[in-house]
Amino acid sequence: MSRATCALEPIAICSARSNFPFRATTTADACSAGACAGGPAPDCDDANVCTVDTCDTVLGCTHTNATDGTSCSDKNACTLQDVCLNGECVGGNGPSSDPGCVLDTGGADDAVGQKDLTQFCQNVGDTCAGTILTWQWDDTGWTGSNTGDACALYDTDADGFANYALCVTVAKTPAVQLNGSPRLYLCTDGKAFNCTGATLVAGRQSQCVVNTLVPDPLTSSSRSANRCAGTNCLVRDTQAQCCVKPADFAYPAALIDVCSYPSQSPSSDPSECVKTVFCTNDNDCVAHSGEGDCQGRCISIGGVTQCSYTP
Fold first, then answer.
1. Residues 6+ apart with CB under 8 A from 205
2. Model confidence, pTM
């Protein structure tokens, strides 16, 4: 055989040829002492995080789609919760209250006075005959008489306004849940992010616990000021974990948002919300993420001036 190589072409592209006896897992195969010697392995990395790259001994490089829902980055700071879909990274269309987690739209350090929230998550599980709702404060400790107060706001008549608020209060270092928390309030359906006319509901079935030093979902690259309080607060959070029981609501309830408040009353104006960013002008609508900064627009939605982010 007079050929200098054992294949018709270098096999860096791993295109198998059945008429030549070579392994597709090597490249630049060449004859040596009358035998076909395999060269170095091909580089099968297609630079796509949404595919699984392998080199088959017959087929060569193969690229199979990663599992749909695998986390990825579309390099767009105005999209949240990017996931793989059919082998491509698809940017989220902004926050959602569907099952899963929602990161703080405004990014880390966007609220002061130990009222900064980092995310909320909704899921179902065998341990709760309802919805498992968690949310996290960016702080891990509170001193003196300071407290961390946040509420999940629910709409039961589909008008976008709050009918119920489930509220948790934490204090001390390390953080603990205060007596009487959680509290369930009935609202007068007047605002989306305030429990107007809040009336305490007796006999609530929903229960909440507080977990300390859970991982902070916001990375250091998304921080603007490194502002938090408590032990390891740059990488750890305080978490409220609630089993929300449907029996607490007169009708099916949709989560509007999770918001923090400057007092233990959800009828106050919120300090911040996880999904919603309040604003006075466009300069208030720069969202920080690991993919950079996203400039949003300050507009009025339902009578509330809030930021709108377009992917």
1. 245, 247, 248
2. 0.66
